[in-house]
Amino acid sequence: MNVRSQPQVTGNSGLVPLGAELGRGGEGSVFDVVGRPDLVAKIYHHAIGGDKAMKIEAMASMKNDDLRGVAAWPAELLTTARGAPCGFLMPRVTGHKDIHNLYSPRSRRTEFPNADWRFLIRSAANTARAFAVVHEAGAVIGDVNHGGIAVSDKATVKLIDCDSFQIAAHGTKFLCEVGVPTFTPPELQGKSFRGLVRSANHDNFGLAVLAFHLLFIGRHPFAGRYLGRGDMGLEQAITEFRFAYGHTRASVQMEPPPAVPPLEISSQPVSLLFERAFSQQGASGLRPTAREWVSALDGLEKQTKQCSINASHHYLNTLGSCPWCHVEAATGIVLFSVFVQRTQQGGTTQFDIRAVWAAIATVPSPGPAPRRLNRDQIGTMQPSEEARAAGGSRILRRVGVILVVLVTLFLMAAVPKGFLLWLLGGIGIGAAVGGKKENPQAVASFSSRQRTAEAQYRTILTRWENDAAESRFITRLRELGHRRDEWNDLPQLRQRRFRMLEQEREKAQLRRFLEAFDIEGATIAGIGPGRKAMLASYNVETAWDVTDGNIRRVPGFGPALTSKLIDWRCQVERRFRYDQSQGVDPHDIAALDRELADTKRKLESALLNGLPDLMRLRHEITTLRVALGPQLDEALQQVVQAEADLRAVKG
């Protein structure tokens, strides 16, 4: 059949006039239907057999409002003038784009500029709703892939290419005999789809992959770094249940790609569904159903909060910090380009930098910390009664030794003939009187007291020098001064940045040109769906991303595959022509203004919070001084006392 000239086709009500060709695929072309703006006609390139015609008729008999709401479901079989089946009518899908354009950060900036993470969650939930409707109608999608799902700017979802679905009618199963490996469950990997009966549980694997793509900004759940020996292809990782983000990832020797948020960025119910979907338990028939996904994803969207730093970021409200800020800082890729203009309740408020700074400047400094007691002021302290008692026996022993020496010397002088006898006797008696050693238990006890007193003093002194110091106030005031200078410099900053954009127009044009060529749709020898998914998980999605350094980080890409990708980029780049007449791209200017507006908002927020922050800090410092000063003096006195006691015990 020559589809380039509109064929004559007939439906249930007679001749169906075809209009313009809207699109062409490998299997057929899609045409306008004259007078029916709600319908289009898919006409196959080649004649179809009786089984295909029976399947379309069976699908048409199954149609209902629910199916029409979520899918381009076949509505009516079309035949040629000779009565040969040639195609079918289906609802027109307008205002929807390939779901891949939504979960890929780069294409999302142009195709879905107003989409934030809440939008991605909602799109995933609506995808699950569409799956649920199909499954509840007794059909199986079979060939789950991102080419068969379209999303609108309202996050509504439509399933397309429905004539490939598996259905059962009148005791006959009409199978889906095609599939994409990256969405195929482990139990079907490597098997031929011909004659294979699919189940909803098989679809549920592909649904979980789609949900993961959406929530984790285009990553594939099995595209990670293999920690074992050799190469681990994506299809093999799926077959072996090597979920790179799961709690068992260490046991299967996998780790996620760098700069990717952990599974915990989704709520616990959603995380558990991912774990089930990609586990051996799931392969046995227990993967989460589409309705389970709807419930969990709806709940996740309700648990999101807005980032205090970047207004376009939303994330799970139980997290301590924004995961998207971390990813953007690590990769340099803008994940969400939504421009949010924040206003105070009741309308906008003009920010007066002079008034704000004047108020900040009125907060007086707490001044230097007052001087505290020192050792010279304390002087010498007498040992305590307990210390004197512990060291008293040693003092008596010393007195006894002195008396023995004196008596011995007297006897030696008075009776010289007994000199040697008196000397030996004196030595013996002196040794007996003073030979006993100091009490080790007492020394240990008072040494411990001295160390404790010293440690307590050091702790309080550190708090005094750090927390009660004027430097805290001065440092904060200087930080606010820097924020004021940055705010005043914003107009000049914009001029500098705009001049850079003007100087780099050729590079910007080249980047836009190369970013228009997706690796996903390219034909590159040796790089199939699995390797493309791996590249996307490492942020290599377009010809612009293809650099030697970027590819070297991707597992499984050695010199040969790297060379093929570089050659493909070079072929694309040779087609680029720089247009000097073009000014700075409006998208780049808008991105610059969005960035500076967000910077301005953050600076104003910091300055507005500066006044109460300084007042709080001054009050905190003065309060600490009142509390810590006496404690510090007392602690030093305890140290001096402990040292005196220890000396007394040691004698």
Textual characterization of the structure:
The protein contains 23 helices and 16 strands. Mean pLDDT is 89; it is low at 341-348. Strand 1 and strand 2 (14-16) form a beta hairpin. It starts with 8 loop residues before the first strand and ends with a helix. It has 651 residues and is α+β, with helices and mostly antiparallel strands. The chain has a seven-stranded antiparallel β-sheet. Strands 8-9-10 form a three-stranded antiparallel β-sheet. It is elongated and about 155 Å long. It has four domains: 9-91, Phosphorylase Kinase, domain 1 (2-Layer Sandwich); 96-331, Transferase(Phosphotransferase), domain 1 (Orthogonal Bundle), CATH 1.10.510.10; 375-467 and 631-650, no CATH class; 512-577, DNA polymerase, domain 1.
Global shape: elongated
User: Main β-sheet: number of strands, strand sense, barrel status?
Assistant: 7 strands, antiparallel
Radius of gyration: 41 Å
Structural category: alpha+beta
Strand content: 5-15%
Measured between the Cα atoms of the first and last residue, the distance is 116 Å
